[in-house]
Each structure stands twice: as structure tokens, then as C-alpha cells.
Write a structure and sequence with these properties.
about 290 residues; 6-stranded parallel β-sheet; 11 helices; 9 strands
Length: about 290
């Protein structure tokens, strides 16, 4: 699936990785990258990731057949409002890579559709605790799940086009309604981040030097807590409603194991551990 011109709005980890992958796999005639800061534009240019890189949103998107919003979710609304005023290419398709979908579809999608521009949400599950263009890599999307979130009135041809696009990048594509996506990702991505942050605080708050004694298990369990706090503030805030029930479930599980240990019931403790192992062992995704 080769696009005439792909405009990537945001040169961070995902945007930079997209530019690398597109160029390596020849998935676009041209790659354009937009950034808010001249320093980021200079980085993209120096790395040879784009045919055109700049801070002028209108110029970067003018020739694009596919536009990918790769900024933090709170910035997408303003960008969509600007795109809606531009004279973009006929049949242009806009998508995003945000990890929250219902607010994006409701606000970003509505602004673009009002201007006659097709928008379909996307979420490649290919992030990292690292951030910035320095962490980008061309193979980030190989084998990764990518969830596309169409609406009931989404154009079938554009949806098929987007499915082919992500598949060409090496993703395993699936479709979910925006709200269903947010509930699912809240449990499998956002709650684990909260749990990792809580674990890091619980372990190290009283004595940070304990980290010097920690092994790989601690590093694996808390790795995602090293993610950009500002980025995660936006994610958790946007998906707040979908996080409340799974947080209560987590609280309940921790309360259960606390009660088991307080009363030291071997049978119940073994079942707690065995149930968790069985569920974890059932994960067959790459890298699991």
C-alpha cells in the first residue's frame, strides 16, 4: 500500500519510527514531517527522515494523501481545527496514533468531518517508556497490534485503505469501537502503567538506595513507570472514566492478597499465584 505523500505531524518516538519505516519499506512517494520547534525540524532533516520538514503546518500537509497525527492527544484538537481550514488534497485521509480514542474521534474527527475530511482513529500498540526522536526505530511496528476505531458511518473504502496501510507496516490490525477501545486499553496498558508507578513508589519511596540491590524482576515490573510523566498525565486524564472500574478491581486484588497473607492461608495464596500464572501464560503475543 503506497501513498503519494504521507505527512507525519509530530517527530517523537512514534512519528520518527513511522518516518523511518515508511522510507525503509518504500510505502510513500514522499514523507513530510511537521514539528512545533525548529530544533526538532533540524533533527529530522539531519537524520534524513523526510523530503520536507518544517513548522508550517499548511505547507507540510498541502500535498499529503495521508496525514498522521503523532502528537500528544491534547494537541490534536487544535491541529484538527487548523487542518479543517486548509485546502487539502482530494480523498485525503487523516488518522492518529493516540492511545485514547473516544475523545479523539468525538472532537478531532468531528472538526475534520465538518470540513469534508475523512478521519479514522488508529492506535498502534508500539510505544516505549523512552521518548523522542532519539528512541525511534524502523522496526517498531513489526508484529505490533494496531487497533483501528471506525464509526458506523466510516467510509468502507477509506477503512480498507487504512487497514492495508498498517498491515504493510507489519502490524496485526483489528477493529474496535472507540469506547470499547478505551475500556480495553485502559486495562491492558493504562492500568499496568499505574501499577508500575505505584510499585516503584512502594518499593523505593522510603529508601531509594534499594534500587542498587534490585534484580531484573524489579526492572521488568517497573519499566513502564519510566515513561514521560507529562505524556501520561494527558493519557490518564483523557481516559479517566474507563480507568475507574479496573482500578477498583486492582484495589480488590491487592486487598485479597493482603488478607491472605495476614491470615497465612497456603491454599488461598497458592491459588492466587496459580491463577495469575495461568492467565499470564495464556498470552501468546510477540514479546510477551
Amino acid at each position: 500500500m503506497v501513498e503519494q505523500c504521507v505527512a507525519i505531524l509530530g517527530p517523537g518516538l512514534l512519528g520518527g519510527s513511522l518516518a523511518m519505516a515508511i522510507r525503509e519499506q518504500n510505502l510513500a512517494g514522499r514523507v513530510h514531517v511537521w514539528a512545533r520547534r525548529e530544533q526538532a525540524v533540524a533533527q529530522v532533516t539531519a537524520a534524513g527522515l523526510a523530503n520536507l520538514a518544517g513548522t508550517d503546518l499548511r505547507e507540510v500537509t498541502a500535498d499529503a494523501s495521508l496525514i498522521i497525527l503523532a502528537t500528544p492527544v491534547p494537541f490534536m484538537r487544535d491541529i484538527a481545527g487548523q487542518l479543517a481550514t486548509f485546502s487539502l488534497q482530494p480523498n485525503v485521509l487523516v488518522t492518529d496514533v493516540g492511545s485514547v480514542k473516544a475523545p479523539v474521534v468525538q472532537q478531532v474527527g468531528a472538526a475534520l468531518r465538518a470540513a469534508g475530511i475523512d478521519f479514522i482513529g488508529s492506535h498502534p500498540m508500539a510505544g516505549s517508556e523512552q521518548a523522542g526522536l532519539e528512541a525511534a526505530r524502523a522496526h517498531l511496528f513489526h508484529g505490533a497490534a494496531c487497533i483501528i476505531t471506525p464509526e458506523t458511518d466510516t467510509d468502507d473504502a477509506q477503512l480498507h485503505r487504512l487497514e492495508q496501510w498498517w498491515s504493510a507496516l507489519g502490524c496485526r490490525v483489528s477493529l474496535l469501537a472507540p469506547g470499547t477501545h478505551d475500556e480495553a486499553i485502559g486495562r491492558i496498558s493504562h492500568i499496568p502503567h499505574i501499577a508500575a508507578a505505584a510499585l516503584a513508589l512502594t518499593t523505593l519511596n522510603r529508601d531509594p538506595t534499594l534500587a542498587q540491590l534490585a534484580g531484573q524482576g524489579f526492572r521488568d515490573s517497573t519499566r513502564v513507570a519510566a515513561g514521560d510523566p507529562d505524556l501520561w498525565l494527558g493519557i490518564l486524564k483523557e481516559n479517566r472514566e474507563a480507568l475507574l472500574d479496573p482500578l477498583r478491581d486492582l484495589h480488590e486484588e491487592l486487598g485479597r492478597v493482603l488478607a491472605i497473607l495476614e491470615n497465612m492461608n497456603d491454599e488461598h495464596l497458592l491459588k492466587f499465584l496459580q491463577d495469575a500464572k495461568n492467565l499470564r501464560d495464556s498470552c501468546q503475543q510477540p514479546g510477551s
